[in-house]
Structure of FAD dependent oxidoreductase domain-containing protein:
Amino acid sequence: MPHYVIVGSAGIIGHYTAYKLLEQNVHPKDILIIGEFLPGDESIKYTSPYAGGNFSCITGDDPQTLAFDKMTYKELGRLQHFLGGYKCGLDRVKSTEYWDKRPSDEKLNSLESYLYDLSFIPSNDLPDGVEYGIEFITWNFNCPKFLVNFQNFLVSQGVTFERKRLENIRDAFVDGAKVVFNCTGLGSRHLGGVNDTKSIPYRGQVVVIKAPHIQENVMRWCDDKPTYIIKRPDSNDQLILGGYLQKNDWTPDTFREQTLDILQRTTKLYPKILEDNRKGDRIEDLEILRVVAGLRPGREGGVRIEKEFVDADKVLVHNYGAAGYGYQAGLGMADKAVLLALGHLKL
């Protein structure tokens, strides 16, 4: 029977956690991942497949988050190798990122310490209203494909997956289980034994278009309406256009006015989307493949990575709340959660 149980909708944080357990020489047959949803499924309650999926500079500037980002960025190459190379749904591309307000020195110093091929954009080359900009080589994810390949890798190592919906976190302590990782994201709000009312969604809406002529990312960060263009790797030329960051909005539907707003903002920020489009130079000429909404699993006060004891001899480790940066900070989060579980880190 498994000694380590990871609970969630088999999202990116749960996968990263299993991977980090393997790194710590936990036997794969001692690891069980329980999820109401599994890679390949679609549901508004299963956020990970809907993510735009890239390493960006959207995160905050507190030391913990900066450290999570740095670890994840530096380790993704190794993970890509294990999952079969760039065809796994993870690849590197150029990214240009703009801020309406200059980031803190702490954030910029951290980025400068590890981003590959980083350069700073001269002020006279910045778009109107932008205070700061950088270019670097980033990681992009084809999230649905990456999750399936990640699951296949874990299964090939001997990790077990089980489709199951739990009513209470205690139900995860199956026979023999000593440690349970709660990676349920927004599910932590209603999961019995957790009921974390600080867990809240940050709704986003994106437009997926076919754009073989675009091979890079462009981002502009502001408060509630970030604008981003993300090249989805190994996807038959899909481009993700967004978006929104709507706090505490649970709406699963998509709206035409938001779609038009996204198309207008992204093509203004990066006119090449229209200028080199083979079907014409108007927004109406873009080949729209899909419009989707997703609920980023956020948390008031930031991520929760915390250890507690259940019935004296069982350990529960919480690992959730990353909102829109689970893919890019999740390896760092998982590393901390696993070290807590194994007793190598104390809080």
